[in-house]
Amino acid sequence: MLDDAIRRGAQVTDLGKIDNDGTFSNGYFMRPTMVTNVPEDAPLMVEEQFCPAIPVATYDDLDDAIGRANQSVYGLSGSVWSRDTGRAIDVARRIEAGQVWINAHGTQAINHLAPYGGVKQSGIGRKSGIEGILEYLQSQTITTHEH
User: Fold this and answer.
1) pLDDT at site 35
2) How confident is the model over 45-76, as pLDDT tens digits?
3) pLDDT band at 131, cuts 50/70/90?
4) Which residues touch 92 (CB under 8 Å, ≥6 apart)?
5) 72, 88, 94, 126: which could form a disulfide with 115 (CB 3.0–4.6 Å)?
6) Pair (28, 66) in one structural domain
7) Domain residues for 76?
8) Same structural domain for residues 41 and 88?
9) How many CB atoms lie within 10 A of CB 81?
């Protein structure tokens, strides 16, 4: 995905540092990477990747940005970053994702007391919270009609 984005003209910024070249070169590892100027149809922008490469998209119109985000077939999670928490909550409500964090992202942002799971092609069902507990239950209905 990263190579494809680069071929399409994206700019890549490697982040962090490698503490041990021997360990790093001994497997499928990559440094955290920020990618800008990624075409909208690039796999890095439209596919659900599980790697430390974050595509950064810019926007001029908030409604357009939300519309572009919601075009995805995925919806596990997202984040909204803003100094205006009220406005960020309004934006978060419009994003089609199982959870949206305000000024945070990732595993440290998860509230383990709240239901967690995706929408669209990012999952069915929930874990954690009462909704997660209900996923493990199998109900039975017994009805009697006495005369």
Assistant:
1) 96
2) 998 888 889 899 999 999 999 999 999 999 98
3) confident
4) 78, 80, 100, 102
5) 126
6) no
7) 61-147
8) no
9) 11
- The reported pLDDT for the residue numbered 6 is 95
Q: Is the pLDDT assigned to residue 135 strictly greater than 80? A: no
77 and 124 housed in the same domain:
yes
Q: Which of 19, 43, 58 is the last residue of a domain?
A: 58
Distance from the first to the final alpha carbon of the chain? 68
Instruction: Report the distance separating Cα 135 and Cα 116, nearest Å.
Output: 12
Please give the Cα distance from 18 to 77 (Å, whole number).
28
Q: Judge if 69 and 130 occupy the same domain.
A: yes
pTM: 0.74
How far apart CA 39 and CA 53 sit, in angstroms, is: 15
In the chain, how many domains are there? Answer: 2
Does residue 80 share a domain with residue 44? no
Q: Same domain for 77 and 145?
A: yes
Specify burial of residue 124 (Cβ count, 10 A radius: 0-12, 13-18, 19+). Answer: exposed
